[in-house]
UniProtKB/TrEMBL annotation:
<feature type="compositionally biased region" description="Gly residues">
    <location>
        <begin position="34"/>
        <end position="44"/>
    </location>
</feature>
<feature type="short sequence motif" description="Histidine triad motif">
    <location>
        <begin position="150"/>
        <end position="154"/>
    </location>
</feature>
<protein>
    <submittedName>
        <fullName>HIT-like protein</fullName>
    </submittedName>
</protein>
<dbReference type="InterPro" id="IPR036265">
    <property type="entry name" value="HIT-like_sf"/>
</dbReference>
<dbReference type="GO" id="GO:0009117">
    <property type="term" value="P:nucleotide metabolic process"/>
</dbReference>
<dbReference type="InterPro" id="IPR011146">
    <property type="entry name" value="HIT-like"/>
</dbReference>
<dbReference type="GO" id="GO:0003824">
    <property type="term" value="F:catalytic activity"/>
</dbReference>
<feature type="active site" description="Tele-AMP-histidine intermediate">
    <location>
        <position position="152"/>
    </location>
</feature>
<dbReference type="InterPro" id="IPR019808">
    <property type="entry name" value="Histidine_triad_CS"/>
</dbReference>
<feature type="domain" description="HIT">
    <location>
        <begin position="56"/>
        <end position="170"/>
    </location>
</feature>
<dbReference type="InterPro" id="IPR001310">
    <property type="entry name" value="Histidine_triad_HIT"/>
</dbReference>
<dbReference type="Pfam" id="PF01230">
    <property type="entry name" value="HIT"/>
</dbReference>
<feature type="region of interest" description="Disordered">
    <location>
        <begin position="33"/>
        <end position="63"/>
    </location>
</feature>
Length: 210
């Protein structure tokens, strides 16, 4: 790894902490694998609806700071950015600790990427925010504005009226100019996002398997 790259060991990574606090809980156990992306098996009762946590399971106080989780799938997590650029700014990450896209395993890339979850989650974000234009941004390494060295995609709605961003350089997708997400707002948005995601899954078919 390049010396300029940021790195946390998994036990200190904030996204790994979220993954540990919000495990994947299919309706039946996996036939081959441990439910954490280590193995290729899919349980007979494992469906897409298993991937959206219930309101009880999505308790944001499971982590410090609070985490507003929308999706807790076998290989993929989605949660609100705690320093959002705009309302509905969502992060989609790998469950396992992968620093860059090149570190991802094949199954993870298929699950998180354009093949499956990103389009479904993007539709949910559009429904909740009422904004149909959005950026999907993914950074690899410190020079590319990656702040948390754990693979994640930003889904950032682009409303007609955007807040003023004083620094318009590439750093806008790194730490940049952000406002802290208030717990009350985060909880409210996450409830709406989970509902919208369940509706999107229902269109696909709740019995559909990963």
């Amino acid at each position: 790894m390049n010396e300029l790259d940021l790195h946390y060991p998994p036990d200190a990574c904030p996204f790994c902490n979220i993954a540990g606090a919000f495990p994947y809980t299919p309706t039946t156990s996996l036939e081959n694998g441990d439910g954490m992306g280590n193995g290729k098996g899919v349980g007979k009762g494992e469906t897409l609806s298993d991937c959206v946590p219930s309101e009880t399971d999505a308790d944001p106080e499971k982590t410090d700071p609070n985490s507003f989780v929308v999706l807790a799938a076998r290989d993929t997590l989605a949660f609100l950015d705690i320093l959002p650029m705009v309302r509905g700014h969502l992060l989609v990450s790998t469950r396992q600790h992968r620093v860059k896209v090149a570190d991802m395993h094949g199954d993870e890339g298929r699950d998180i990427g354009m093949c499956f979850w990103l389009p479904v989650i993007a539709r949910a974000v559009c429904k909740v925010t009422g904004v149909t234009d959005y950026n999907i941004v993914q950074n690899n390494g410190a020079r590319a504005a990656q702040v948390v060295p754990h693979v994640h995609f930003h889904i950032i709605p682009r409303p007609e009226t955007m807040p003023e961003i004083k620094n318009k350089s590439w750093t806008m997708f790194g730490r940049g100019q952000r406002d802290e997400l208030m717990d009350e707002d985060g909880a409210s948005i996450a409830v709406e996002m989970r509902k919208a995601l369940r509706e999107e899954i229902a269109k696909i078919g709740t019995s559909s398997k990963l």
